[in-house]
Each structure stands twice: as structure tokens, then as C-alpha cells.
Amino acid sequence: MNDITIRDINMDNLARVKRIRIKENQENFIETVDECLAEAEIHKEWCPVSIYAGEGIVGFAMYGAFGINPDVWIDRIIIDASHQGKGYGTAAMQQLMEIVMDKYSVRTVYLSFTSGNYVAQKIYEKLGFRFTEEFDSAGELIYRYEATAGNI
User: Fold this and answer.
1) Has domain 4-146 been given CATH number 3.40.630.30?
2) pLDDT in tens, the chain (152 residues)
3) What sections of the sequence does the record tag as coiled-coil (predicted)?
4) Backbone phi, then psi, for 134, in 5-degree steps?
5) DSSP label of 12
6) Spatial distance between the Cα atoms of 77 and 148, rounded to a whole number of angstroms
7) Considering the entire predicted model, what is its pTM?
8) Which residues does 26 contact at the CB level (< 8 Å), separation at least 6?
9) Tell me, what DSSP letter sits at residue 81?
10) Which of 48, 95, 100, 128 has its CA at a distance of 20 to 30 angstroms from the CA of residue 60?
11) Dihedral (Cα; 152, 104, 65, 112), 10-degree rounding
């Protein structure tokens, strides 16, 4: 998926980003784009971004780093319902992992997701994320990726 790019959200694409929707059976797995953007307004550590396939917006993601020795998180990734099943989520995650490791000069990336979200779990595990045996404050499973010479 070479045509997937991660781009900043700006006044030119904000309205299109806000129209991203997930499937009805996924609504308990992740917040809406509007909720994510509101959270990013309060917590400036979050970096909301758009996901493009060619010149069309297909998704949204949010990442950030927190603390004195910051842990880096890819906290949200949402692929619009009409674009799911095309490999965009996996391709976007690969790019996001590279972006955050470069931007924050880290080799470890965290994410969390709701138990029962088997599609996300399969993607994350295929990319090398592993369950830490820990849960976040909302009860989500915490996964960690450790970059090594063999898996980057």
C-alpha cells in the first residue's frame, strides 16, 4: 500500500476527517473522531492526523508521548467503514510506527484496545506488538512493540 500517507489535520481537511465513521458493531471499541479531537485540544501531547489513500481521506489516527521519560503511544486509529478490509489500517500502522519512533527517538511503542476487538488484535500482533499482561485505566489491553534490527 504505497499510496497510504499520514498527513496533518488542517482547515482544508478537517470537515472531511470529521465525517469518518466506523461500522455500527465497532462503536464500543473506540471513540469517535470528534471525541478524539476534543481530547487533543485538552491534552496537547496528542497529535491527531489524517490517513490518506492517494488523495482521499480514509482514516484518522492519534499518537503522543507522555511523562519525563515519555512512553510513546499510538492511541487511536480509525479507518472509515467504507474503506475497511483494504489493508489501509495495516499500512497506516506501519507508517505511524515509523513516524513515532523517528519523531520521539524511541524503539518502543505502546497501544491499547478493547478486549474482543479481534480484527485490531490480529493486525497489531502481525506487526509485532505483544500483550504486556497489563490493562489501562479503562480496562483496555496494553500492547508493546520493541523495535529490533530484524523487525523494523
Assistant:
1) yes
2) 569 999 999 999 999 999 988 777 666 677 788 888 898 889 889 999 999 999 999 999 999 997 766 799 998 888 898 998 899 999 999 999 999 999 999 999 999 998 888 988 999 999 999 999 999 888 889 999 999 866 65
3) none
4) -125, 160
5) T
6) 23
7) 0.88
8) 81, 117
9) G
10) 128
11) 0
